[in-house]
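Ops channel
N.P.: pipeline sanity check, posting one input/output pair.
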């Protein structure tokens, strides 16, 4: 009997020693992380990454195999992604929308998941070629199924709109940011004058970013839209050169300000935005800052903060439509781009954002070499 008790005590001691030598849960999570390298293995445009708060991340975007709707990919390590299928289906007999399903953003609020997106409205009495509007759908899980809150767009501003982004301020108020599409929006500027004089284009259409307060139930807007960002009017504006490259290279007669994302850092409101043709190499990202969620915003003097790197020996082009994610004490931007191996397909990148003590924002990208894992401590 005594010998048996010694055996039990010995086994218990060995088990205790073995447990004490095992790494902690935090250490295991850190050491078990796979190598992180861009681009991610997901073919999405306009990516949006949701941290569900339980260790799982969900990636939404334009395309990704979805037909008339949106798909989602899931990951616990931001490297290995699983296709969770199509989570929203549009262009049905009962839906308000019919085509051009773009730029989904998913927010977890009070246990529900809200999907803001752009699509063409079936209601088109004047037969417009671009009839984009913003819809809102809700689900009980990040993998859907998402159902529209109401069978109509969120609101009708009187012009086609895309690229919805939602920001909640410290006082609990919600704000919607969106881009007025370039369609039938010719704007006079020194760039337009130059393009005519060069024989490139007769007119230059522009897209502008607006903001408006959003009702807490996400079924309507409050007040009138406020113009926040537009392409520079003067050619000597410090942001005119990079924001006009699609025009000055003869690519297309449009200047874009789109794909905006708003966040707050140390009391300052940052709004990031994309310019130039989304399907071309010049797509790039800049930012502006302000003291209020509806501006006025001042564009930064170090724009663009994210652009193609082929002139620096890299192979990335078309970087844009980014969002910002906080992971621990760091900020990361998720965006789409193209590389020589991926060709015309838009793929997802994730790079660190750094904001200096003076408020200057920079992006450590586009990167294609192995970088520290975003989830590492």
């Amino acid at each position: 009997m005594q010998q048996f008790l010694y055996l039990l005590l010995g086994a218990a001691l060995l088990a205790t020693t073995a447990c004490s030598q095992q790494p902690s849960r935090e250490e295991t999570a850190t050491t078990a992380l796979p190598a992180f390298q861009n681009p991610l293995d997901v073919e999405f445009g306009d990516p949006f990454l949701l941290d569900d708060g339980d260790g799982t991340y969900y990636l939404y975007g334009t395309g990704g195999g979805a037909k008339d709707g949106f798909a989602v990919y899931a990951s616990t390590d931001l490297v290995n992604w699983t296709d969770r299928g199509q989570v929203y289906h549009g262009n049905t007999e009962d839906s308000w929308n019919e085509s051009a399903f773009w730029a989904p953003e998913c927010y977890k609020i009070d246990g529900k998941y809200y999907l803001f997106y752009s699509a063409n409205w079936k209601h088109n009495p004047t037969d417009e070629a671009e009839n984009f509007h913003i819809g809102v759908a809700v689900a009980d899980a990040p993998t859907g199924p998402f159902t529209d809150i109401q069978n109509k767009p969120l609101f009708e501003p009187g012009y086609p709109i895309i690229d919805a982004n939602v920001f909640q301020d410290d006082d609990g108020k919600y704000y919607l940011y969106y881009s007025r599409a370039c369609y039938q929006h010719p704007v006079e500027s020194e760039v337009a004058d130059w393009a005519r004089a060069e024989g490139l284009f007769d007119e230059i259409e522009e897209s502008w970013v607006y903001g408006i307060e959003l009702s807490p139930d996400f079924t309507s807007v409050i007040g009138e839209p406020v113009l926040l960002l537009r392409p520079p009017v003067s050619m000597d504006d410090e942001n005119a050169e990079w924001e006009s490259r699609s025009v000055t290279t003869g690519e297309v007669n449009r200047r874009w300000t789109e794909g905006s994302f708003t966040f707050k850092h140390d009391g300052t409101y940052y709004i990031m935005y994309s310019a130039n043709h989304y399907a071309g190499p010049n797509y790039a990202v800049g930012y502006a800052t302000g003291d209020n969620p509806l501006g006025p915003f001042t564009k930064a003097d170090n724009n663009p903060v994210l652009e193609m790197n082929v002139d620096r020996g890299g192979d990335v082009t078309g970087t844009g439509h980014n969002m910002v994610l906080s992971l621990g004490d760091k900020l990361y931007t998720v965006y789409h781009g193209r590389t020589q191996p991926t060709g015309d397909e838009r793929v997802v990148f994730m790079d660190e954002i750094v904001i200096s003590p003076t408020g200057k924002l920079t992006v450590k990208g586009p990167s294609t070499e192995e970088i520290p894992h975003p989830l590492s401590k």
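N.P.: looks fine end to end. Confidence is low (pLDDT under 50) at residues 1-30.
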